[in-house]
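--- STAGE predict ---
source: upstream dedup step, 1 unique chain passed
mode: sequence only
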Amino acid sequence: MARLATEFTLPLRSFELELTLEVGSTVALVGPSGAGKTSVLRVVAGLARPGEGRVALDDDVWFDSARRISRLPEERRVGLVFQDYALFPHLNVRRNIEYAGRHRADAYLERFRIGHLADAWPAELSGGERQRVALARALARDPAVLLLDEPLSALDAHTKAGVRAELQQLIRELALPTILVTHDFQDAAALADQVGVIVDGKLRQLASPRELVSRPSDEFVASFTGANLLRGVARPAPGDITGIRLDTGETVYSTDPGEGTVGVVVYPWDVSVARLHQDDSAMNAIHGEIGPLVEIGNRIRVPIGPIIAEITTGSARRLELSRGGSAIATFKATATRLVQLG
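--- STAGE serialize ---
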């Protein structure tokens, strides 16, 4: 498989984007709006020129500031799918695809199961259909690299899950170096082998989705991956564990070493909920008032004081949880991670 290698700096409005990244399979870039994620795609595609650096696909150099090489976008084998899909409104579906590869339209109409839409106009298409046309147009260029800018953000919740599964299968079949940008960690974890977290133009952490969850490098990475982030002061405790006095007054324990001001990371699915204290292996217990319950599929998120638990709807009904009541959130010291606060 080919490898895309990038190392560049790009001045942006309020900071400088600095990135060194090698992509052999699929990398998702996540982070807050304005962090520089889309600018990475623009640099690779040739739509933005770095101040300095290098972009190359194996030995094919697309940009090299030292050698004064800067290939035009049409000279780079890149398939780019824009966030809003950017279909030409004055061209029907077939002609949108033919714009990128005139002799490939029939093959991609069939591949994406949109042959019945060949004569339709972009304004007549649903979000999922527009995405399939945009992907077909990008692939009709016969790209060596695929770039996806927020590929699922324009879809409603009902459509998103199915389209995400289709996109996941497509990416695996293509086996191209792929960079996708998203603000949704769940999308990134489903679609990419590695996830890079970018904040203010800097890559905070690059790792597999599993590693980002189990070992976040800092408080932002932890909160972005869906964790509860509590703050407190850590001190060594007997038995090779660490005790943390939380800012909210409770004391919890972690098997991670730590001392001084720390962030305490606990994922909602590692938190159990009870109405009365139970003797079990969980060292940490937080009593609190129940906040508004949020249903997500067959699970419910339950705020209890400063922490959020995620339990099944059946458990929530059995415990008769309701806003304004009280409950106890418990979690193990082994599920309690410590990170430094930035």
